[in-house]
Amino acid sequence: MQTINKTLNIPSKGYKKILKLLNEKGQSRLIGGSVRDALLEKDSYDIDIATDLLPDEVTNTLSQARIKVIPTGLKFGTVTAILNGEKFEITTLRKDIECTGRHAKVIFTNDFAEDAARRDFTINALSYCPFKNEIYDYFTGLEDLKQQKVMFIGQAYERIKEDYLRILRFFRFSSYYANQLDPEGLEACTKLRDGLSSLSRERIKGEFDKIIVSNGNPEILGAMFETKILELIFSIQNYEIKYFRQAKDFKLDLIARYALLLYHQKNIDLAIFLDWKFSRYDGIGILLILDFINQKVITEFDIKKIWLEKRNYKEYLLTAVIIGKLDYLPIREFIDKHEPLLRPKFPIRGGDLLDMNIERTEIGIKIRYLKDIWIKQNFKPSKLELLDMIPLSMSFLRKQESSNQEE
């Protein structure tokens, strides 16, 4: 083990109070992400604490100090303390005694080295005592962090067999902290990729969400495509790295990035997204972007309509720019012009047409037709001017509606 003296800037107001209370009864340290990110001078608000106290002892100690404690994972020795709105995940030191690839059986220990040995990557096994200003490194995590390496603790093949989610965690942490993929880790992930099928879709999506929004995702997703891991997760048959390099520059949000990833997918619908454990809201959002960018031609009318109807209209437009359906400069000018504007309100409501004794079955078609006219005329026709267009025959409106759908 290597111990170095260094004061870390931890962006938390309450963590020292929690540690001080726990250290009165045992030994406790910050562990994992908050230590790793502080060394990189990045803010991390996930404050994890490792302790040799048992969960009941942690609960009793903090409760006596009137700190709220929630038993979030007693089976694994974890409780969550809440102090002034901050959450602290506190876990008793553990040692694995059996790992199945999905779940692990653990026993509690009082040895920080044994606890560090069960963690996945060297950079995640670092711990820190703010009272002694000491960082404890059991597996060359400091050097690997400096060299921008994400390395498994021990043999990659064996560590992945303990928990197949580590395949995705390898890609996720590499996308944030590595300048290239570790060859041994990549080879092990490739050989053991079928193990991902044993995991829940919730666990898979939780990791993948973090990969797809990372700065390093173009190359990482490319590696996942080449190793057929993307195919295993989302049936991806084609991956365009250039799309994601541009997406990084445009800072696209989560659902727009998924739309890019799934752009070439066929026969994708909401039921598939729900099966993949997307929320209904996100699934519909991705499908709407896919519908927009899959139009043969995106017209000025389409651009105005998406600005009017979607608060995240920029995601639609920039996604279309990335795949080559729209040119960037005119879209940038459109966004700069329209972003500060208040969206006009379409003046016609269904009740207006009911008052004119129009059949309910006809109202939807007529409103869509009138709204299209209103948008094409730059939102200028007034309510009265639009209502004057109502006598148009239903056969003409239906023909217009059919024509719009074909476009």
Describe the protein in words:
The chain is of the alpha+beta class and 407 residues long. The protein has 22 helices and 10 strands. It has helices at residues 15-23, 33-39, 55-64, 112-117, 141-146, 156-162, 165-177, 183-191, 201-212, 217-226, 229-234, 241-250, 254-261, 270-275, 280-293, 300-309, 313-322, 328-338, 350-354, 360-376, 383-387, 394-406, and strands spanning 2-5, 28-31, 47-51, 68-73, 78-83, 86-92, 94-99, 104-108, 127-129, 134-137. It folds into 3 domains: 2-146, Beta Polymerase, domain 2; 148-239, cca-adding enzyme, domain 2; 350-406, no CATH class. An 8-stranded mixed β-sheet has the order 1-10-9-2-3-6-5-4. It has a two-stranded antiparallel ribbon with strand order 7-8. It is elongated. The mean pLDDT is 91. Helix content is 50%, strand content 12%.
Concise summary:
The chain is of the alpha+beta class and 407 residues long.
